[in-house]
Write a structure and sequence with these properties.
Blueprint lengths: L20 E2 L18 E3 L28 E9 L7 E8 L5 E9 L5 E7 L4 E5 L9 E8 L4 E9 L2 E6 L7 E4 L8 E9 L5 E9 L2 E3 L7 E3 L3 E6 L10 E9 L3 E8 L4 H4 L12 E6 L7 E4 L8 E9 L5 E9 L7 E5 L3 E6 L12 E7 L6 E8 L7 E6 L7 E4 L8 E9 L5 E7 L13 E3 L3 E5 L14 E7 L4 E8 L6 E4 L1 E2 L2
Antiparallel strand pairs: 1-15, 2-16, 3-8, 4-7, 4-9, 5-6, 5-8, 9-10, 11-17, 12-16, 12-18, 13-14, 13-15, 13-17, 18-19, 20-25, 21-24, 21-26, 22-23, 22-25, 26-27, 28-33, 28-36, 29-32, 29-34, 30-31, 30-33, 34-35
Amino acid sequence: MSEPSSDSPPAAAGDPRDRVRRVRPVPRVASLGLVVAVLALAAATSQVTRHAPPQPAPVAMPVAAPAAAVSSSWFCAGPVASPSRLADGHLVIANAAARPLHGRVTLMASNGPPVSQDIQVDPAGQLIVAEKPSGTAPPYLGAVVDLDGGRAAVQQVVTGSEGTSSTACATSGSTGWYFPTGTTQESAALSLTLVNPYPDDAIADLSFTTEQGQESPQDFQGIVIPGGTMAAFDLGSHLRLRASVATTVTLRVGRLVAFETQTVQAQSQAAAATNPSGATPWPPGVSVTLGAPSVGSSWWWASGSAGDGTTEQYVIYNPGAGPANISLQFDLDLGSADPLQVSVDPHGMAVVVTNSESRIPKGVGHGATLRSTNGVGVVAERVVLATSPASQTGIAEMFGSRLTAGRWLVPGDGATDSVVPSLAIYNPGSAAVRVSISSLDGALTTLDGQGAVTIPGHHRYLLGASPGANGAGPDRALVVAAHAGGPVVVENDTSPAKGIGIDTATGVPLD
């Protein structure tokens, strides 16, 4: 695997405490677990099994533990039940090992005790765990999945009236987290969930870049998340009617894991009139995203396109003190395009809208590679906003992959309804790569009548809705293996055959 940058070293750990609180001079917030409608601030005080902070520093994105690992842990969050169950959650656990994996799932609620259950994932199997703790539905949920081995991946999925979205759970904490996108326009709710699975307290500060400049609301400074708890925040409670919100989570002490959940409901004409001037309104949809634990100089996306009703944006956030010079290369399915050159100011954002670029033909798919040419790290997401006449409507936010790898595990979203799936395999290198796709039990999917395909350099391969001869399709858990030529990047995209929803998720590097 290729990892372009590393995370910052861990901060010193604090002492355990009994409840969420803030460090002086910020006053303590009373009852962070209390949520009033959607403009609420929620915090979990439930205790769970506490994990020792990993050494060395965390990797740039979730990676499956090797087959020889004696254990592995995954940290998840994103379900938002309040005010009207906008984003119910479930976990998808995919086991690519040849033996069963045993473990425990612990749900961490924002207004009640933890709920644990023992699990077994069959060899080459997939297990779906509903995130529904007993008692009154909490406004926010997190989860910890502990397994007694490797070669597995865990996916966080949220589903509501506005669609379905999934993201890989984290495999380690970090001293900082970044989110380039989000909106708190009318009818939109933007939630941030912080999970601390470690024994010691974490103390976090939240800062934001919006169209109104730099913002650091006092209530979001010096937040203490005790070990083994989670805390969640409705960002719109202090950042009302912002067209764009980039978020930085900075840890004074300790480590944690951060997820962002965006939900957008249909706007009335009166509500639309309150949108910031010049803002692009977001269509109805839902998106859950694991944050970036560090900045990076290289990012890859395996799939992308823009067309009638579909706006595709690449949002680049520079949280550093120096300007970043960016080259954004699009490898088109048909033809070629010169790279775009973009400069991103310190603590600023740049947005590339592919619909507005004449060099990227409408409706032509592409893979994309982003590089910082002056070495200044950034974080970058692809954002898709789809409305009629697009065949599928909704929102989808996805970080580029920080790694290329020779083997990938795609957990899937556990969908049981009729879906339109698409698996994209992108070869960003110059040499051709021979690639196979198999189900977890090793049964090869038929690709163009063969067991493997060759992907030329700077091209991609799409496995569409039709499953292979052995029933392995992109709506199932899959393993993608590059046998010769170099590493690849894998993305799984799913949308319902009818209704709202676009789900895009990067695969998990395996071994």
